[in-house]
Amino acid sequence: MHPRERRDPSGEGGAESLQAELRRLISRRDFLAKAGAGVALGSLGGLLSACSSGSSPSSSAASIPLPRPDHPVRWPVYSDNRPIASNLEPEKNATLQIYNWVAYINEAVVKSFCKKYGCKYSITTFNTMSEAIQKLNTGQFKFDIFFPTIDVIGPLIEAKLMRPLNHSYIPNIVNTWPDYRNPFYDEGWRYSVPYSIYTTGMAWRKDKVSLAPGWDMPWKAAKYKGKVAILDDYREGISLALLKRGITNLNTTSTAQIQQAGRDLQELTSLVDVRIDNNDYTEVPDGNTVVHQAWSGDIATAASYLPKGTPIDVVGYWFPRDGRGPVANDLMTVLSSGENPVLSHLFLNYFLDVHNALDNYSYVGYMQPLTAVTPELLIKEGLLPRQLTSTVVLPSDFRAGVEELELPASANLVWEQTWNSFAKGL
After folding, report:
1. What would the pLDDT profile of 32-42 be if each residue is shown by its tens digit?
2. For the purposes of burial, counting CB atoms within 10 Å of the CB of 120, is it exposed (0-12), middle (13-18) or buried (19 or more)?
3. pTM score, two decimals?
4. d(Cα 391, Cα 383) in Å, to the nearest integer?
């Protein structure tokens, strides 16, 4: 799950439907390969849906590697899906089609980009990654730019829906942390540049809670029964229980470890009557929840949700100093279906400019991994209270942190079943 998925009005989505959409995505790619290059994507319509509905994982899907820090992946560039040429002029009279999460970009920055390059724009939003993949899978939309999570780029590349990048249009990549010029999930940044980065830690009301922060904080909060919550996310919830026991492999395939985490979560229910929700960004500032597992970007915006007259000092966010906790980042990519590939490259470059990134942060609350974006700069620019500098993600956090990455299907099923057994009825 993603922090923005809290806005899913249907309550649907999640890991199971996302994996189903990825399987259908690969089935679609296999069908297209057999159908031949002369078949237009837009004409397949319902045939694709019928072809892929209920399909089992294809051999192509099973062969897609799972990137890991100790097993990086350099994705192929296909002969029929190559980067654009260098030194091309931006498209004229264009409308840039942007496909992004709800409320996850500062439209003022998009407007300034379009003013600079003489284009218009259209932003289409999605609530869950499975919803986004499903729409892309139809082949009926000509989006230029897409903001995926790192766990889905492999299937998108295999399906040739993502356009490989021509680096000459993106000189601002030098503003990013060096890690992002050769990330383990996309070696050589062939298909992606970083967008936002965040950690998962613990948030609490310091004026109401007398506990030392740590992964075991919810289990020690019996005194605050009914006012303790963890994120409504099967990976984040089980990971919290793993971390409580000192297990930092948050992609474990050990059934014993996963099920023990489930029992620890059940214990949490009896101890504190724990709630599961993704409203950390409002519930901690307003005091309705006094201990909440939280995303850093949410708590960075806490000042906006404090009751009038309540000082920001009362809100705390903890992430371990050694960086051994959950860290995640989102991407900006160019889609092969888009009609404005030059503008798309320039757009990615524009959002890697430090000034533009700060303007974007002022609305989104989730920072971009740019070397110049430091806690000191965010405080100086009036974008972050000094009391919440712990929400800033540092390069050391990315290097030491643990990403919750795509799991093998059999292990993912154990994670889901364990979580559903705990979360049912909460």
Report:
1. 343 333 333 33
2. exposed
3. 0.85
4. 12
